[in-house]
Amino acid sequence: MKKHVINGIEIILKNNAKTPRVALVCNFLINKEEKYAGIRSLYTKLLMQGTKKYSAVELSKLIEDNGIELNIKCKQDNLTACTLCLNEDFELAVDILGDVLQNSTFDEFEKEVHKLKGEITSELDEPRLLATDKFVRKIFENHYYSNSYSKILEELDKISKEDMFEISQQFMNSKKVITVVGDIQDEEKLLNIIAEKLAFMENYESEDEIPVVNKIQAPTVDFIAKDDLAQAQVLKGVIVPTFTHEDYPKIIVMNNILGSAGLSSRLFVELRDKKGLAYTVRSSYEPMIRGAILYFYIACDPSNIQKSLDEFDIEVKKLQTTPITEAELQGAKENVIGRLEYFSQTNMQQALMISGDYLLGLGLDWEEKYRKMINDVTIEDVQHAAHYFNSNSITVALAKSEYKI
Amino acid sequence: MKKELINFPYLTKPISLYTLDNGHKVALAHKEGALVNISSWVKTGSINEDDVNNGVSHFLEHLMFKGTERFKAGDFDRIMEQKGGIINAATWKDYTFYYITISKNHLDLALDMHSDMMTNITLPEEEIGPAFDIAGVAPEEKRERYVVLEEIKMRKDQNWSKVYHALNDMMYEKHPYKRDVIGTSEIISQIPRSAIMDYYNSFYTPENISTIVAGDFDEEHVLQEIIKGFKFRNTKTKIMPHGEMELEIKNPRTEVQRGDVNCGYIMFGFLADSAKNLKESIALDIISTVLGEGKSSRLYVNLIEKMAEPYYYSLDTCHYQFKEGNNFFIEANFDHTKFDKVIPEIKNELKNIQNITEDELKKAKKQTKVGFASSTETVAKLGDSIGHYLTVCEDLNVAQNYEKLLEEIDIQYIQDVAKKYLDPEKCAINVLLPNEEK
Q1: Are B422 and B328 spatial neighbours (Cβ–Cβ below 8 Å)?
Q2: A123/A108 Cα distance (integer angstroms)
Q3: Angle A111-A113-A114 (CA atoms, 0-180°, nearest 5)?
Q4: Cβ of A124 under 8 Å from any chain B Cβ?
């Protein structure tokens, strides 16, 4: 990997020879809460809806006629503006990306608000998403991370077109990094293209105004009734330390053993294979800058909601009280690292990962450090990490009303 | 043993395709990198089922992970995942496939365990779980049979699945493609082990299986490991009569179902010729790109972008390729209060596909080129592409002929194909709308 600086922005290049498509990611750090839920989602959608040079239709046509992928997505901590194209179309792809970031008009504001409402309405028709939405709002209550789909629907009408220009300015004034991964044969030419097409951006470092996530004050159980469902959707989670904490690798390995290893995790084997409680069951760890969640998810027969929660508690208790074997620990470490390799095969996956890690201050050698951290986890560390489930938890169940818990 | 070399776009070396003396096909594709992908594609799925065993292909797919003469249930999953492997399987109408993506350092172990799983299963009763009456009391012992029943329930809660499965049923009269791949709760709750093992013995035969390895490895060594590892049983492939291909919907109609949803869901379905008719298949891919893939597609531009207050939330097309006749779909998510406009508007766009332009054809061709580039970006995607061509098209040469045929296709040809298969009055339409009180 090589690092260059243009306008104060660090440009990271990784050469993957003989690959047909090149990926470029501009990654912007978020350090302010949203004025209204959904303001950034709306902004990312409007970036694709026309610039001073192109209408929305002309823009889509230009992108798709050339087989270019251009995606702009906003998560809780960062916004990524990405393009993926055949090597010969790189200059055009960066030109379009620069144009949408610099010259979007937001003229289709009302229409895009209308479209976003419709899209969210249809998303919330899916039981899993409806339950997850409620879970996110509860577990991050009163924090910016609780800006879920349903909250966006509640606040969308408060957003104005002027807010879009304000958000645009916020991103231009944020910390950012650009990563390019592909068959880089002429590095100088590539840097010149970036300098010419993205020269309007500069790098800024500013203070983080978003507070850390609060601990859950008291355990709560919420039930949502939906009477035409065949299955129940159940989530139970706790707030845990994130990637800056020494327990980060311990939680990763513990979570892998408990429920994220694929077909051989303890939850999968015990709740699915041996007890036939579900087709889908897992645990997940989602670290973000200001906090992280660790949670259990199962889609089961509604008559088995309590049984599933009890079985989950039994598996957690086992991890807390009975030391895992050395073989299981080693297997979990290899699984974690194997997954990292699996999900970083393409140029786009690598560009997103490198830029994300770098933006968060984890450094260009993060992958190496990460492997070492994982390999240093001990049997006692796994037991220790399992105790995070003793914190106050949020449980959400969605099912037919007769199965209320 | 026969060997052919097949060129595949964007690969640095041709793919070696071996047909072993027992009929087992082995494709070895070179791709630089740390990971390898191993997959075996069995030419069976719901196409070889009937009303008595519908869902058996998929149930068997689950049970293939439940142990062999050498390894007990769960060993395969645990050993492969503890070596960092990603494993799984999938069942569709024409095929069932099993795959592993793993570090090339563990290739020999993965090949050994994969070949053992494919040819040496035991189907223990205790892993299958007892048969029971779905209308009665469920047994205490809930094993894999119950997992599949939960999967069936899960799909009942998915709105697009509800629409797709109802539409699929409407599109066919008698052909086995009419059946739902996952089967029914009634059949899965009752089907005995003996019927599942009979099915395995009838279709998991060497001439019905293609094994693909994609990655950076010693070709001769891998070939020998596959020959050594796949110890097939001495069973004969069962020939299932599928009846005639259905190329036209006999009873075009619209059906509406109701549910606890907040917007409308609609799918239009059309039948077309086999995926083996490559030129027509490519033409339908082009039509799909022009009509409904992406934000510059006609449906998106005319029914969303050009509307002041759009009432469609999504509009897409897709072209599913099958050995015995392809499917073409148009699907939309919309404001249910505007339902009266939806069918005429989409049909109108479909009629206009006859006016395809040179620019649109050029776009579709460029996207095809990008599609091939994308299919070589991971060893898993490469394995999937090769498996699809070998199993559905039954010819890997398709990969090297595709671009040549694509260049031959002109506007007149597209128009002819559209006229032949995409008559707006000859489709089946299924709609999901909110319950009446909404």
Answers
A1: yes
A2: 22
A3: 65
A4: yes
Residue extents of the structural domains in chain B: 2-229, 254-434
Which chain B residues in 20-79 lie under 8 Å from chain A, judged by CB atoms? 32-35, 65, 73-74, 77-78
Please state which of the four CATH numbers 3.40.50.720, 3.40.1110.10, 3.40.50.10420, 3.30.830.10 is assigned to the domain occupying B2-229: 3.30.830.10
For tokens 């020959």, name the residue: B227
* Closest chain B CA to residue A399: B157
* Joined tokens for residue A146: 């609780």
A62 phi, psi to nearest 5 deg: -60, -45
A59, closest residue in chain B (CA to CA): B296
| Mean pLDDT in residue range A311-334 | 98
Beta-carbon contacts of residue B137 (< 8 Å; ≥ 6 apart): none
Distance separating alpha carbons of residues B271 and A331, to the nearest angstrom = 48
Q: Quickly count: other Cβ atoms within 10 Å of residue B315's Cβ.
A: 27
Q: How many CB atoms lie within 10 A of CB A117?
A: 17
Amino acid symbol at B81: E
Query: Using alpha carbons only, what angle is made at residue A14 by residues A185 and A43, rounded to the nearest 5 degrees?
Result: 110
CB of B347 within 8 Å of any CB in chain A? no
Q: Is B259 on the interface with A (CB under 8 A)?
A: yes
What is the second-level CATH architecture of the domain B254-434? 2-Layer Sandwich (3.30)
- Give the global pTM: 0.96
Residue B126, judged by CB atoms within 10 A of its CB (0-12, 13-18, 19+), counts as exposed
A33, A176 contact by CB (below 8 A): no
Query: What residue ranges in A209-302 does DSSP mark as E strands?
Result: 220-225, 232-240, 278-288, 291-300
CA distance B178 to B165: 9
Model confidence over A40-88: pLDDT tens digits?
A: 999 999 999 999 999 999 999 999 999 999 999 999 999 999 999 999 9
Closest CA to A341 of B313, B154, B106, B304: B106
pLDDT in tens, B118-149: 999 999 999 999 999 999 888 888 899 999 99
CB distance from A88 to chain B under 8 Å?
no
Q: What is the C-alpha separation between B252 and B266, in angstroms, rounded?
A: 15
Report which residue type is found at A74. C
Q: What is the rounded distance in angstroms from the CA atom of residue A230 to the CA atom of residue A207? A: 48
Report CA Rg, chain B.
23
Q: Which tens digit of pLDDT belongs to each residue from A157-204?
A: 999 999 999 999 999 999 999 999 999 999 999 999 999 999 899 999
Q: Which residue has the tokens 């990008």?
A: B370
Cα–Cα distances in angstroms (integers) from residue A92 to residues B9, B229, B411, in the given order: 23, 50, 28
| Rounded-to-10 torsion of CA A244, A246, A248, A249 | 130
Catalogue all structural domains in chain A, each as residue range(s) with its CATH number: 2-197 (3.30.830.10), 220-403 (3.30.830.10)
Q: CB A278 to CB B263 under 8 A?
A: no
Q: Using CB atoms, which residue from B33, B151, B300 is nearest to A279?
A: B151
Q: What secondary structure letter does DSSP report for B413?
A: H
Establish if B258 touches chain A: CB-CB under 8 angstroms: no
Give the nearest chain B residue to A65 (CA atoms): B363
